[in-house]
Amino acid sequence: MIVVHHLNNSRSQRVLWLLEELGLPYEIKRYQRDPKTMLAPAALREVHPLGKSPVLSEGDLTLAESGAIIEYLVERHGRGRLIPPAGTRDRLRYTYWLHFAEGSAMPPLVMKLVFDRIEKGPMPFFARPIARGIASRVKNGFIEPNIARQLDYMEAELKRSTWFAGGEFTAADIQMSFPVEAAAARGGLDASRPKLMEYLGRIHAREAYRRALERGGEFAILT
C-alpha cells in the first residue's frame, strides 16, 4: 500500500493529487505544523532524516522530494499516463517543467515568504528600521524582479500551449501547480497574466484535484 506522509499546507498536496489522477489506492498519515513556528513536527524525522514533506512509503521504499516522488509514481504505476511519449519535444518540455518548479520557480517565492516575515514580524524597536530596510532592499532589488521575470516567462509559455508540456495535461502540471499557486498567494500573480490565471482555473476544475483537497484537508500555500 502507498502511504503519503502528509503535512498540512505543503507540497505533499501535489502527491495526493497525482495519486487521485492515477486512480491509485493510498493511505494518508497526517502531520500538523506547529501553529507558532509553522514548522513540521519532529515526528517526520522518524520517517525521513530531513523531517520534511512530502514523503512517500511503499513496501520497503521510503522516498522524499516532490519531483522524485512524481517521477517514481508515473514510472511505476502510470502505465504511460500523464507523461508524453519518449523522444518527443513534449517529453523534453515535460522534463524541463518538472525540474523548473522546484529548481527555479520556488526559491524566490520561498525567499519572499522569509523576507516578508522579517519585514512584518515582531522585533526589538531599535532593530526594526535596520531589519525592515534590509528586507525591503532585498525584495525590491532581487526577489520581486526575479519572480516577475519568471511569471512573464511562464505566461509566454502558456500562450504556446494549453498545458506546460504541450496540449495534454501531464504530471509536470501537477508539479508546476505549487509555484503557480504560491505566486497567486504571495508573488504578485493576478489578472495581468491571464494565461496563468486560466491555468489555475483549469487545475482547480479537475475532479482529481478536488478529490485530493477533500482527502488532504484545507489547503493554504505556505512553503
Number of extended strands: 4
Q: Which geometry do the CA atoms define?
A: globular
Strand content: 5-15%
Secondary structure tally, helices: 7
Mean pLDDT over the residues = 91
Q: Ends: how far apart?
A: 27 Å
The main sheet orders its strands as 2-1-3-4
Category from helices, strands and their pairing: alpha+beta
Which stretches of 5+ consecutive residues score pLDDT under 50? none
Strand and helix order: EHEEEHHHHHH
Percent of residues in helices: 55-70%
Largest sheet: 4 strands, mixed
Radius of gyration: 18 Å
What does this structure look like?
- The chain has helices at 12-22, 66-77, 89-120, 128-160, 171-186, 194-205, 207-216, and strands at 2-7, 26-31, 55-58, 61-64.
- Helices cover 57% and strands 9% of the residues.
- A 4-stranded mixed β-sheet has the order 2-1-3-4, covered by helices on one side.
- With 223 residues, it is α+β, with helices and mostly antiparallel strands.
- The model has no long low-confidence stretch (mean pLDDT 91).
- It starts with a strand and ends in a 7-residue tail after the last helix.
- The radius of gyration is 18 Å and the shape is globular.
- A hairpin with a 2-residue loop joins strand 3 and strand 4.
- The longest helix has 33 residues, at 128-160.
- Helix 1 (12-22) packs across helix 7 (207-216) and helix 3 (89-120) runs antiparallel to helix 4.
Question: What is this structure, in a nutshell?
Answer:
α1 (12-22) packs antiparallel against α5 and α3 packs parallel to α5 (171-186).
